[in-house]
Write a structure and sequence with these properties.
By secondary structure, the chain is an alpha+beta fold. It has helices at residues 2-23, 59-87; strands at residues 26-30, 34-39, 44-49.
Length: 96
């Protein structure tokens, strides 16, 4: 039982280390309407909207473009997180 608690504690430490490392990472996602900068904890740090998409008749298109850019940024962060986890030895070390 104590072995499982130690494994859990080690896993929690690894998760905190990963979270700290990811906080320092950023990605950009850009399309014809917006540019988003997101940090490794999936928080949007900036959102720039191009002027031509600020008119009311472009509202639906702008919403779609923002959604696409956020999804793209999340995918990029997830890839970076997977690489960081792999560099740290993955979760396999703690799940035995």
């Amino acid at each position: 039982m104590f072995n499982k608690l130690k494994q859990f504690n080690d896993l929690r430490k690894q998760a905190n280390t990963l979270k700290s490392a990811m906080a320092e990472e950023t990605v950009e996602a850009e399309n014809s309407a917006v540019k988003i900068i997101m940090d490794g904890n999936q928080e949007i740090k900036s959102l720039d909207i191009k002027k031509e998409y600020l008119s009311p008749d472009k509202k639906n298109e702008l919403e779609k473009k923002i959604t696409e850019a956020i999804a793209d940024a999340i995918k990029k962060i997830q890839r970076k997180m997977a690489m960081k986890m792999q560099q740290m030895g993955g979760l396999d070390n703690f799940m035995k």
